[in-house]
Amino acid sequence: MEERTAYVKRETKETQIELQINLDGSGNVDIQTGIGFFDHMLSGFARHGLFDLMVKVKGDLEVDCHHTIEDVGIVLGQAILHALGDKKGIRRYGHFILPMDETLTLAALDLSGRPYLKYDAPFTVDRLGEMDTEMIKEFFYAVSYSGAMNLHLKVLEEGNNHHMAEALFKAFGKALDMATMPEPRMMDVWSTKGSL
Question: Where would you tag: which of 60, 94, 100, 175 has the fewest CB atoms within 10 A of its CB?
Fold first, then answer.
């Protein structure tokens, strides 16, 4: 299988983003979004998905965290899609149930080319550090749509809000790792249509 990496640069009046991902990495990260808690979440995603991830962002944080987080989601989805290429020989589906202390989360995804997000995470605080908890859904929405994936995220057992957020990001990383893994028995695209 060819090297599965991508570099995406996106500049708007609100954000300037550089992102590089290696789907076959070892979990090395260099993440600077200006939002400490978001950096922590992205690091957990990459580390537990074994993706090498570099993210450099200059965003309009003097306004709020919305544009930075949403735009990183857009760029990450684009990078994943680009790194996957024609999607030949991958498992396509991935799922993971991740416990983190008292919390339990589910992530399931299909790299189908048909974007959709189903999200159920009942946070009870408005913010975690400098990150609005409502932005967690917006981030995953942006990833799922720009990455053309069907993504389901659900908190099965509630608890500490930090634990719930971290478990969602880590479970997503584990599920994405599974879906992008090579399937040696499948030489083509895993679809009856012949394309994803």
Answer: 60
